[in-house]
Amino acid sequence: xxxxxxxxxxxxxxEVRAGVDHVDAELxxxxxxxxxYMDAAARIKPSREQVRDGKRKAEVIANAQARAQAAGxxxxxxxxxxxxxxxxxxxxxxxxxxxx
Length: 100
Known about the structure:
Layout: H1 13-44, H2 54-70, H3 75-99
Helix pairs in contact: 1-3, 2-3
């Protein structure tokens, strides 16, 4: 796969779409790494009750929101995305815990 043009260098929708597709593939690879940590958490935590940690969830979302704001991104939308990501991660971790 060739490296796509950067966003500001794109002049056609085909170039934009190629860039978005490339970033999406990178995001999936990063999500696979993140979910591997959920597998580890399910293996390490001694009880199922420890899977959901509201304090940690709030911390993760606040960190993402602050990083998004610093990067000039729509931090409210990023917080919403991270809420969904954390909930999906918790569900995955519950399933991983139950499999062991």
